[in-house]
Each structure stands twice: as C-alpha cells, then as structure tokens.
Amino acid sequence: MAVKENTQQKGLSNPAALALASSPAGQQAIGGAIDTTLKVAKITAIVAVLSIGGYIAYRMYKNRFVSMATNSKYPKSNITKDQAKAKAEALYQAMHGWGANLDTVLETLAGLNYNGYVEVFNAFGKRSPAIGSDMTLTEWLNNQFTSSYDRTQINFILPGIL
Amino acid sequence: MDAKTKKIIIATTGVIAAGTILYFVLRKKTDNSGGECDPTGNGQNCIQVNPSVVADSLYNAMKESGTDEEAILLALKNVNAIMFDQVIKKFGKQSYNKYLGNQINLTPWNPLPLEPLPVWLKSELTTSEYNKLKLKYPQLT
Description:
The complex is a heterodimer.
Chain A: H1 15-22, H2 24-62, E1 70-71, H3 81-95, H4 102-109, H5 114-124, H6 137-144, H7 148-157
Chain B: H1 3-26, E1 30-31, H2 51-62, H3 69-75, H4 81-91, E2 93-95, E3 114-116, H5 117-124, H6 127-136
Antiparallel strand pairs in B: 2-3
C-alpha cells in the first residue's frame, strides 16, 4: 500500500490510522459514517417533533371543555339559551378580577332549576382566571367562594350544585 | 365479485361506520342519573321537607338575642318557595320583642305581640341577608 506523504503533519500521528483513512475502503467507511449520522439525526428530530406534538395534543385533549348533559328526569331548563348566555357573562363579570361579587352571583343563580344551571354551565364553557388554568363555572364558584358561609349562601340559593 | 364491486362495498361500509360514530359522538348528551327530584327545587315540589322541623330550627336560630344567619340558611336549604308557605304556617305566631330581638318581656303586665315568621325574619336579619331570602321566596315583601 502506498502511503501518502504528509510533510505538513506536525507532531506524532498514527500512521496506521492515516493509512487506513486515506485508502479507498477507508474513504468509503468515512462516507458511510457521515450518512448514518445524518440518518440518525433525522430520525431523532422527527421523533422529537412527534413526541412534543403528541404531548401538546394530549394536554389539549385533557383540558378540553366537557359540557354537562341535561338530565331528562328533571323538568326542562327554565331559561332560554340566550338567557343562559347572558347569565354566564354576568357571572364571569362578577367573579373575575379583584374580589368576587357574591350578591351578583346569587341574584344571577336564583330561580334556576337543574337543567337551567346546565345551560348556564355550557354557555360559560371554560374561562381563564388571572392566575391558573381555565375553569368551568362550577370550578369558578368553588374557587372564588371558599368560606363556609359563602358556600352556605350559594347552597341556599341553588341547592345541589356545589 | 370483481374488484370494483368490492371497492364500492368497502367504501359504503366505511361511510356508514363513520356516520354512525359521528352521530354518537356529536349527539346531545343526556343524563339519567341522580335521584328522582331536581335538587334545586325550583319549579318542582319534589323534595320532601318536614315543615315543622324547619320551623323549629328557625325559631331556635332567632329566639335569643342575635341571629344565627348560617343556621337559618341551612335550615331553609331544601325548602323551595312552595314549601315555604307550609313552614310559615307551622311557625304560626310567636311572641316577639321587636326591640330586643328576643322574647324578653320587660312589661310583664303587657304580653308580647305574636308575630309570624316573615316579621321575625325581617326583623332579625340584616337587609342584605333578608334580600337573599327574597331571591328565593317571592312571598316575602
């Protein structure tokens, strides 16, 4: 095997490795290694993107809004869908921001039957508070009104909800 | 059968299957769980409440000086507007010292006036508390 003269080489090198690298078989091996590295890099990138995307999709699915079902055993909702929307807005306005206005909440909830509450719950959907993740209407009520007296008042106006 | 017919059959089955799945996923959900009675009590007089027991609890919450508002709301929790009339009846009229909010009679030669439940409630509760009761019981003025 002819060894290429490398007069530029400074210091000691491994003549055997150099000999191997500069041979045609050696060159092919090096090219193959680069190919494989690229392939591996490509596969890693695809897996990373898919797993991140999959995780995001999973989180979105877990946090999706699940509507309440109307209960056919009880009387139909005593408010219309438009009234439910208006009530949902009023409740959100009363609760978000600094301090929660219990009186407004009680007035808005007064007189609703179970299926009426379901309509308001569905119209409310999931809304975001200042801090924390999106919550449904029942979660908002539980979150904003924690004192036992507040909860007694809500349970008085609308028993069976909280 | 030839390839074309096979394809058509598979396609039709696929469409029917997809349609059925979509129907079940997208239809309005109804729920049949829970008890027999609408728990809110609004518009339906289903939950059984003993009006005498309620009237007693209210009397006990109010008879001394000071009022236990929480006890009043707890006693009235499952009492809807229709049942409230029964509670008023069972409460009847009880002697009441409006000025002291209790039943101490400072003028023993003169018996205390007998007042019905709405008068007791209006006198014992703050305006905002009383307004909360009015939200649920239209018969209160």
